[in-house]
Amino acid sequence: MAADLNVRTGRHCVFALHAHLVFVTKYRHRVFDDQHLTRLEEIMRMVCGDFEVELVEFNGERDHVHLLVNFPPKVALSRLVNSLKGVSSRRMRQEFPELAQHYWRANRLWSGSYFAGSVGGAPLDVLRRYIEDQARPV
What is the pTM of this model? Predict the structure, then answer.
């Protein structure tokens, strides 16, 4: 197992913790195009880096995004999600003011809920291919 590239080491531990995250836009509005998804990936990679989390895979569609993250045991997934959604919402609203028409009732981009699934039973390459195959808007 030590040869497995998905295994990471910390100061006092060896771990392979992966989660599949899905964030949906507020009111499930179909707001993203390819430019938005590209920028969202950049923002989310930066936030993950701040948490020492590896963003293994990212993709999305017009109304939601999928992330596959490899995270250390010291990271509370709920705190990571909170930061990912908060920072990306704020940055996207600043950089793309035209998105404002889709969240006029609530000054946020994302729905309050999210999906988080632990990944371990299915091979990671299966999940990676699933996320890669998510259709990007044309």
Answer: 0.84
